[in-house]
Amino acid sequence: MSTQGLEVIDHTVQLTHEWINDLAERLDWADKRQVLMLLRSTLTALRDLLSVNEAAQMSAQLPLLIRGLFYENWAPASRAERTAAAFVARVSERLEMDAEYRGEEDITEVFHLLSVRISEGEVADIRQSLPADIRRLWPG
Fold this sequence. Notes:
By secondary structure, the chain is mostly helical. The protein contains 8 helices and no strands.
């Protein structure tokens, strides 16, 4: 029982920490802020490649706090360039100064995390909607 009676908030904080800790372990990174930055950057870059319906379906499986990051500053009418190079560049914008960041390798780890944290069917739908050039970053 939550001391504040807000179990939904306590639960999403716990789940968010689980996701961040899982990703930090996969990356072998010590700085959890940078782990969160990578997760956030990858999710928002991915979001901008998805249809509105696919983004909504995916976000429904994210913890509430991560879902908020997913939708932050979203302009559904804008479309991202649909190449792997553009995707990696967009994710990398906020992480270039991080000594631990390894580009595509780390983005692939975020996709691995999503593959185990959201349903297999949703992962298949998302991967199918991505251009082949970007899909190669997300192992099947």
